Amino acid sequence: MRSASLLVALLLALPAMAQGLPEPLTDMPGDAARGRAIITDRMRGLCLLCHAGPFPEERFQGNLAPSLAGAGARWDAAELRLRLMDSRRLNPASIMPSYYRTEGLNRVAPALQGRTILAAQDIEDVVAFLVTLREESP
Amino acid sequence: MKRCLLMLLCCLPAAAQQRRSSFEDMARETQALQRDDATNPAMLWVQEGEALWSGAAGAAGFSCASCHSAAETSMPGVAARYPAWDDARGAPIDLAGRIAQCRAERQGAPPLDRESPGLLALSAYVGLQSRGLPIAPPDDPRLAPAVAEGAALYAERRGQLDLSCAQCHDDNAGRRLGSSTIPQAHPTGYPLYRLEWQGLGSLQRRLRGCMTGVRAEPFRYGAPEYIAIEAFLMRRAAGMAMETPAVRP
Questions:
Q1: What number is the average pLDDT over the span A107-124?
Q2: What cofactor does this one take (chain B) (predicted)?
Q3: Domains observed in chain A
Q4: Cα dist. B237→B12, B27, B30, B123 in Å?
C-alpha cells in the first residue's frame, strides 16, 4: 500500500478539471465480489444510505444521490476511483463523503482521527465492482 | 414583534417556508401513539414529572409547586420560549438546565443529571403545559449571539463523513437516507419518546445521535454549543406548534 499523504499530494497536483485517477491504490487487483459486499454494508460502505442500485435483496435504499445502476457505463475505473476517494474535488458542495481523505476534516470522533472511511484495497474492490454495473436501471 | 417575525420569515430559505413537523412523515400507527395520551408511552414520564412537581424535596422541604403553584396555571407557554437568558450565569440556559438549577439552588435537593429519568420527567411535564402553543423565542438581544453561533454550528461540516446539519435537514429534507425520511429538524416535540431508544430523550440526545451519525465527536451534555443550536432551531421553528411529549420512530 502506498502512503495516503503521497496520494493526497497527487490529488492536489491534478489540474482542477481532472476527471480521474488512473493509478490503482494497491498492487492487488480489485475483487468485485468484495466490492459489492462493501457497498451493501451500511456500516462500512454506507453507499445505500444515499444511493439506490441493482441490489434486489436490499430494502430501504436511499434517494439522496443518483442510482449506481449504469455507473460503469458512465465512468471508467479512473473516474470512479476519483469519485470515491474525494468527490469534493469535482463538486465542493457534494454530500458524498470522501472515502480516502483525512485532511481538512472537523471534529472527527477521536477513535477515527487520521483514518480513512475505507482502506486502499476496499476502494479498489468497490471500483472493480462498479465498473461491472453497465446497465441503467429499468 | 409581528414585524420581527415577518423579517425572520423573509430571511429563511425557500424550503423552510413550508415548514412541517416530522410528525407528518411518520407512519399512521406512530402518529396514533402520539395523538392518544392513553397510548403515548411518554405519558409515563409525564406522570412521574407531575409527582416530582408536587413532592417536597431538599432540606427546605419545598416542592416546585411551593413556588410555582399548579403547573397548569403557571407553566403554559414556558417551554415554548426557551432557551432563555439566565441572569445568574450571564449565559443562555435551556429548560432542562433551568429545572436542574431550581432543583439544586432553590430546593437544595440532590442535583438532577442530564438525561436522568427525573429531569426528563420534569421537562416532559413542564413541556406538556405548552402543547399546542406556538414556539415563541424571546425577543431578547442578549440571546442573539447564541442564535448566531447555533446557525454557524448548523452550517458547519463535521465528522469523518464531513456533513453539516444543513446539508441533510435543509438541502435533503423529505428524501430518504436509507430507511429514514430526513426531517426538517424542528425541535417541536422534546423531550420525546423514540421507538428506537425505547425511552424518553432530550433534544440534546437527538443532536448527539446526528453528530455520532456523521462520525463526529459530540459535545458533552449541557454544553453551550447544544444550547446555541437549540436557540437557533427554536428561532427557525418560531410559530410552529409545540408537540411535547412527541413520539418518533
A1: 98
A2: heme
A3: 31-130 (1.10.760.10)
A4: 11, 22, 22, 19
Closest A-chain CA to B166: A95
Q: Does A111 touch chain B (CB under 8 A)?
A: no
The answer to whether the CB of B228 falls within 8 A of the CB of B137 is: no
Indicate which residues of B carry an active-site annotation.
210
Tell me the chain B residues in contact with residue A118 when contact means C-beta distances shorter than 8 Å.
Answer: none
Residue from B157, B158, B160 to probe the interface with A (highest A Cβ count within 10 Å): B160
What would the grid cell of residue A50 be? 444515499
Q: Calculate the dihedral angle through the C-alpha atoms of A83, B165, A36, B196, rounding to the nearest 10 degrees.
A: 180
Write the pLDDT tens digit of every residue in B126-135.
Answer: 999 999 999 9
pLDDT single digits (tens) B34-70: 999 999 999 999 999 999 999 999 988 999 999 999 9
β-pair type (B247-248, B192-194): parallel
pTM: 0.90
Q: Is A115 part of the contact surface with chain B (CB cutoff 8 Å)?
A: yes
Q: Which residues of B define the annotated binding site?
A: 64, 67-68, 102, 165, 168-169, 206, 210
Which residues, in sequence order, are CB contacts of A53 under 8 Å at separation 6+?
Answer: A39, A47, A61, A67, A68, A69, A133, A137
What ipTM was assigned to the predicted interfaces of this complex? 0.89
